[in-house]
Amino acid sequence: MTTRVASHAGSWYSSRASTLSSELDEWLAQVPTSIDGKELPVPGARVIIAPHAGYSYSGPAAAWAYKSLDLSNAKRIFLLGPSHALYLPGCALSKHSKYATPLGDLIIDKVTVKELQETGEFENMSTGADETEHSLEMHLPYIYKILSQKFKSAAEYPPLIPILVGNTDPSVERDYGKIFAPYLADPKSIFVVSSDFCHWGSRFQYTRYLPASPSSAAASSPGGYDLKRHDKKPTNPPIYESIGRLDKMAMDAIETGKHDNFLGNLEETKNTVCGRHPIGVVMAAIEVLESEGKVTGEGKGRFKFVRYQRSSEVEDISDSSVSYASAYAVL
């Protein structure tokens, strides 16, 4: 029985349980009790997309996804996050039995992990790679918090299946979508998808800009063009509004429910959505269920974005920002 330590506690978020618990409570309380006329949690909302930056940046945005999540039938929680440090062409599983948080430990669903291992399509994360990666860890306190609000004791908490998603190409995403589809079809399964959105700035090697005027010669590509360090600061629109438009295009593509639409958007704009691959895997899995007639009804299987914000408002080419978005999908 090995436990993954909360390696980012004390830096990316508070390591003091009382402080962390209060912060999570406060952010969840700031979310309205209903969104677009739908009471929260949204019935049947078993899939969410939420950010994974330091809590001072992304904590308030993530609360919108977690407050939307319907845990009424939850028996297991799949957590898919992108690999930032480990080169990985596919997906990898944790070797640990528990994941620690300052609030308490989350138990790993070893039965489901073994089932996935037996497909032969998953690698195992080393302890070092597991503890270095933040995209999974940043969701653990939120998961523990919402489970503590729903279940009477930690012994009743649904177990966790953490999955690190690498640099998967479209066909590989579709292959993993087929593997996850039966689990996604199970009303007892929850899927949490970890992703930040646009990472803008020279330090991210991404300075794409969308001018307001489509007639501009520099805007011959609908995906915009890259700003150079010595370019004149654009004002129509300001850079931060352009970033918002780039993210809106990505979110709109995700909301279509078409995996190819999302891939096409990324190809066109080169948007630095760091969780593009876990998002793609889950979109591919939903498409499998749709093809099998297991997702029916208006709006079913479609992500609905409920929150969007940025770490700062970029006005100068030398500035940078990261975007955070939260969404849910009803199945």
UniProtKB/TrEMBL annotation:
Pfam families: Memo
InterPro entries cross-referenced by the UniProt entry: MEMO1_fam
Signal sequence interval, chain numbering: none
Low complexity composition-biased segments: 213-222
Organism domain of life: Eukaryota
UniProt region (Disordered), positions on chain: 213-238
Family per similarity comment: Belongs to the MEMO1 family.
Protein name: UPF0103-domain-containing protein
Species in which this protein is naturally found: Hyaloscypha bicolor E
